[in-house]
Write a structure and sequence with these properties.
Bound molecules: 6-O-phosphono-beta-D-fructofuranose
Strand order of the largest sheet: 3-2-1-4-5-10-11
Low-confidence stretches: none
Shape: elongated
Number of helices: 14
Length: 358
Amino acid sequence: MLRIGMLTSGGDCQALNAAMRGVVKSIFSKRDDVEIYGFKDGYKGLIYSNFDMLTSRDFSGILTRGGTILGTSRQPFKLMTVPDKDGLDKVAAMKHTYHKLSLDCLVILGGNGTHKTANLLRENGLNIVTLPKTIDNDLYGTDMTFGFQSAVDIATDTIDRIHTTATSHSRVFIVEIMGHKVGHVALHAGIAGGADIILIPEIPYDIDVIADIIEKRAKEGKAFTILAVAEGAISKEDAKLKKKEYKEKLAKKEHPSISYELAHQLEKKTSREVRITVPGHTQRGGTPCPYDRVFSTRVGAKAAELILKGQYGYMVGMKNGETIKVPLEEVAGKLKYVDPEGSLVKEARRVGISFGDK
Ligand code: F6P
């Protein structure tokens, strides 16, 4: 008997179900003697032994379904080693659940925080295989994460729709795009949507440079300007602050997000109307795009191959179009940033996109 535990952890995204389907279908194509334990709401289900026994049928018809059939929750890594309110040792509890059910392995789908805990469980002797999930595409060790391309599609669609109204009204528009501390989604959606200015955390901006671009465009007869702004975008002054100082500044901030601060500053500097659109969690919602369906199916099938060979302690990822396995200790705790000197940024600059820095 092969006993597989499965959980999805952290923020959801498109193609989580498609990835799990890929794992389960591939396993059952080789073996019948398989039990699947689906833990509810991420690591919480593993800690408190809350699971459903699932059959291959549970994974049918879910290729196109957004969200996760297992549910998910955020369980910060730094709290994993802190006992819960009843004094329960969470790591010991997860190990206990794993051994009590005689699991052969755990398949964990998640992003950065999830991978730190997955690696901790590996260090504690559990057999782990992980899959790279996040719209942010910031997981180290893989070119791609599922959810990313779907989120880029949605953010691009938002910019496309803003284009028509921005031109009619001759307004400045800010579209705030998710991505946590990195700018991959904003960069791709900004280019795809024809944004005039893209602001990402990896390239700190100068507000005066942005104001000048808006004025220059207006003088040239382009009365509207569209900014694709990553939620983590940061000014040059703020980028100089120490991490602690910046956190303190953020805590005192009068604006709900960076876009509101920018809008306030730009209205003062340019005397133009500035509007803000925040697609927010719609970027994580709905059906996965075809790319994500294919990608998640591929990494799911590759994870099944590792499980059937008894190769554990890896995240399945993608490099140069090929599925690969990356040791968890190489992935955990690192972020994959946009390279400010990389070809994508250079090519974007070449077509006249500004990053608000010069
Ligand atoms: O990591 C995915 C993500 O959507 C980020 O882009 C965003 O910063 C964060 O999750 C939002 O988290 P929550 O869903 O907990 O509000």
